[in-house]
Amino acid sequence: MVAPKFSTKPKICYRPIRPSDLETLEHIHAKLFPIRYEPSFFHDVVNGCDIVSWGVVDSNRPDGRCDELIGFVTARVVVAKESEIVDLLGYDSSKSDQTLVYILTLGVVDAYRNLGIGTILYLTSILDFCTYNC
Ligand SMILES: CC(C)(COP(=O)(O)OP(=O)(O)OC[C@H]1O[C@@H](n2cnc3c(N)ncnc32)[C@H](O)[C@@H]1OP(=O)(O)O)[C@@H](O)C(=O)NCCC(=O)NCCS
After folding, report:
1. Could you say which EC number(s) this protein's record lists (predicted)?
2. Strand pairing partners for 57?
3. Which distant-in-sequence residues (6+ apart) come within 8 Å of 84 by Cβ?
4. Which of 43, 48, 69, 94 has the fewest CB atoms nearer than 10 Å to its CB?
């Protein structure tokens, strides 16, 4: 018999990332990604400096850490013609005034994977972008 993943049903909530998330955010990034991010990156994320971000918490965690991040997305909005990213996309950036949403990091801790959280985070960042730029 497969052991249940959670002793209580997770209640997944999405919220903006705040300065109080700094330590957890750094910790999860260090666990999930092979590259090290500069402290300035985390500072910019938690303070919303040029970076759009969303966090996820499980407000029904049995250990009481109901406001601790278990996932996140960080993204930057860039003007297409000022970015080298468009070269990868293969269209003429010099003629484009379009803006793009560039996902910097997207992560969900192991225990909460395959519940659709990553997909929602991805879609949330796109929706956020469209709300202000479309
Ligand atoms: C990628 C990640 C955010 C997905 O989170 P999640 O909450 O499990 O995502 P969802 O439940 O919405 O979707 C799971 C699907 O994504 C797929 N998936 C997971 N990691 C993937 C990857 N690196 N590349 C492509 N697909 C991936 C799974 O196979 C699954 O596919 P299925 O629905 O067809 O079975 C999570 O696996 C993660 O944090 N990975 C480590 C960090 C990382 O690689 N981030 C992406 C680059 S920044």
Report:
1. 2.3.1.48
2. 13, 69
3. none
4. 94
Question: Could you tell me which CATH class the domain 12-133 is placed in?
Answer: alpha beta
Q: What is the spatial distance between Cα 111 and Cα 78, in angstroms, rounded to a whole number?
A: 33
Read off the pTM.
0.89
Residue owning the nearest CA to atom 33 of ligand 1: 114
Question: Could you tell me the distance, in angstroms and rounded to a whole number, from the CA of residue 19 to the centre of ligand 1?
Answer: 26
Number of H helices, E strands in the chain: 4, 4
24 — pLDDT class (breaks 50, 70, 90): very high
Domain boundaries, the chain: 12-133
Q: What is the dihedral of CA 63, 120, 46, 134, to 10 degrees?
A: -160
The pair of three-digit structure tokens given for residue 49, joined into one six-digit string: 């400096």
